[in-house]
Amino acid sequence: MMKIFALHIQIDPHSGLPIYRQIMDQIKYYQASGALQAGHQLPSIRELSKLLAVNPATISKAYNELKHEKVIEIRKGKGAFLLEPETVISEAMQRDALKRIARQFIVEAKQMGASSGLVREILEQVLNELSMH
Amino acid sequence: MMKIFALHIQIDPHSGLPIYRQIMDQIKYYQASGALQAGHQLPSIRELSKLLAVNPATISKAYNELKHEKVIEIRKGKGAFLLEPETVISEAMQRDALKRIARQFIVEAKQMGASSGLVREILEQVLNELSMH
Amino acid sequence: MMKIFALHIQIDPHSGLPIYRQIMDQIKYYQASGALQAGHQLPSIRELSKLLAVNPATISKAYNELKHEKVIEIRKGKGAFLLEPETVISEAMQRDALKRIARQFIVEAKQMGASSGLVREILEQVLNELSMH
Amino acid sequence: MMKIFALHIQIDPHSGLPIYRQIMDQIKYYQASGALQAGHQLPSIRELSKLLAVNPATISKAYNELKHEKVIEIRKGKGAFLLEPETVISEAMQRDALKRIARQFIVEAKQMGASSGLVREILEQVLNELSMH
DNA sequence: GTGGTCTAGACCACT
DNA sequence: GTGGTCTAGACCACG
């Protein structure tokens, strides 16, 4: 019964991001950081709903989207479980997609006046935080 | 006259992103890349509307949001003009905000199976592309 | 439910002011008077739209502008809620801004032939009306 | 030939206010302050247009509006001249109108966090500036 | 139920 | 010519 009680998700109703997106992002983050690993069970919809004081339909939507993105698997009557991260896209597509999101990141960074040095520094910090050495 | 003819914006109706957001993002990108500079005039609403085959009200919304974000200035009867980028936030806030968007970037990158090496490589490429050496 | 039934807004189609501006001004007035307080929910767009016999998009624009001015907060799927008024400007800037709008006020008052005594009298009346003793 | 060369009007294209309104407001301001008096001649449209680097049609609109408001008089082939300030509205209407603009003023003042003391102080300052003792 | 996006088309205000 | 406002109505996203 590998229940994950340490999974504390923060919802910010003022962030502008849809709540279900915030939940998805943080589950992905925990997966990326290694805190959540393949096979781990996620809290039930009902549980998480109470914990976050969020409508169960919202949790359900988050889980459902994660299912479609093949991040989790839903076993009827059992619960939701993390899957092995998939990496099936081609090299070229990966580079393209990466460039696209990198561009978004850098444009925003530049907008707030960050220097390339600071960008690199923060990047290394976050790579480290997410155990990508 | 300083008309901007080189400003070609691509709209992808399947991207999920609202059209007005796509327009905003690309104008910000052109600004970040230096292709658009402070004082430059943007295409008129009607022009861009025809060019992109998009309703004028949608272009208007994009411009209006950019106005609120202080990216452009709208002079009634004249047109829309790029502003000097503002950078008034504190060092600490800048680092925090940067970390937040970097985390988002890296999580997505990791999700698609990118190695830290590839992330660094693409980042340098994009920094270069946006003249941040 | 905290619905606001007492929020009756008057639209004057001949005033020259855009409808969405009239709505904004009156909501700001209700906020200043204390009738609307932080956390209070505003009527839904559709409700107000019916009440004022005005297109929903127009109400939406009013709410959206108030969002940008940080007067209200919009939670998708929930509604629009009043925010705590922000006051982060410096003393000097406040005095300058105040002087500017005071000048506008007095010039208009003088234009209509009002004496300084009448101006002071009306001012006290309005300060009182808005609970600023 | 009582030409008014000392009439220096400031146009701020970023203020949001239409240029013709800014011109009108400042002419009214000069009238209210006593700098401009009945009979004084205003600069010609062509002159002011050059001086302010503003389209002549814009100056023309400002003068035309002032004419309708009976602030100035346009004598063909002669120029524009200030009129005696009219005060024909009834006491009750005056009070109503005054209250309306006072409300606008105070709501804005409150929005920026000004105390009633500061409002009164600035008001006296401006009344003084405009010679309304 | 809530608000958000987009369209088509009319009319107005500003320069 | 420029952008701004408003309408009517369709469809989507969020909780």
Q: What does this protein structure show overall?
A:
4 copies of one chain form a homotetramer. Chain A is mostly helical. The first copy, chain A, has helices at 19-33, 45-52, 56-68, 91-111, 116-129, and strands at residues 41-42, 72-75, 79-82. Chain A has a 3-stranded antiparallel sheet with strand order 1-3-2, covered by helices on one side. In chain A, a hairpin with a 3-residue loop joins strand 2 and strand 3. The model of chain A has no long low-confidence stretch (mean pLDDT 86). Chains in contact: A-B, A-C, B-D, C-D. Chain B binds a DNA duplex (15 and 15 nucleotides) through helix 3.
Ordered list of secondary-structure elements with their pairings:
4 copies of one chain form a homotetramer.
Chain A: H1 19-33, E1 41-42, H2 45-52, H3 56-68, E2 72-75, E3 79-82, H4 91-111, H5 116-129
Antiparallel strand pairs in A: 1-3, 2-3
Helix pairs in contact in A: 1-3, 2-3
Chain B binds a DNA duplex (15 and 15 nucleotides) through residues 18-20, 44-46, 54-58, 60-61, 63-64, 74-80.
